[in-house]
Specification:
By secondary structure, the chain is α+β, with helices and mostly antiparallel strands. It is about 55% helix and about 15% strand. Helix 2 runs parallel beside helix 5.
Length: about 110
C-alpha cells in the first residue's frame, strides 16, 4: 500500500514546489510612457532616454497621446491611480499599478532602474 502512495506523493510535492517557485518569482512590471511630440517636458524625458540608451537597457512601451486609443489608455491608467483622468498631464509613466507624473520624477525612475 505504501509503495502505491510514493509516486503520487512525490508528484504532488514536485508540482507544489514548482508552483511555489513560479509564484515567488516576480515578473517585472509593465512600463508605459505616455507622451506628446509637442510637450517640452516630454522632450526632456526623450532626451534622457536617448542620451542614456535607456531603451536598450529597460523594456518599456512608448505611447503618443495624439492617438485616441493611447489617450483613452492613459485616462484608464490615471483612474486606477485615483487621478482626474480628463486633466492628467504628460509625460505620464505607468509602472506596476503606479502613476509617475512629470519629467523629473520619470527621469529619476529610469535612473533608479539603470
Amino acid at each position: 500500500m505504501k509503495s502505491k502512495l510514493v509516486f503520487p506523493t512525490f508528484l504532488f510535492v514536485a508540482i507544489l514546489a514548482v508552483a511555489l517557485i513560479a509564484f515567488a518569482y516576480k515578473k517585472p512590471g509593465e512600463i508605459i510612457l505616455y507622451y506628446s511630440t509637442e510637450c517640452p517636458h516630454c522632450k526632456n524625458v526623450e532626451d534622457f532616454i536617448q542620451q542614456n540608451q535607456v531603451q536598450n537597457k529597460i523594456s518599456f512601451t512608448q505611447k503618443e497621446i495624439s492617438d485616441p486609443a493611447n489617450l483613452k489608455d492613459l485616462q484608464s491608467k490615471a483612474k486606477q491611480c485615483n487621478l482626474q483622468s480628463d486633466t492628467v498631464g504628460i509625460p505620464f509613466l505607468w509602472y506596476n499599478g503606479k502613476c509617475i507624473l512629470g519629467d523629473t520624477d520619470i527621469i529619476n525612475f529610469f535612473k533608479s532602474k539603470l
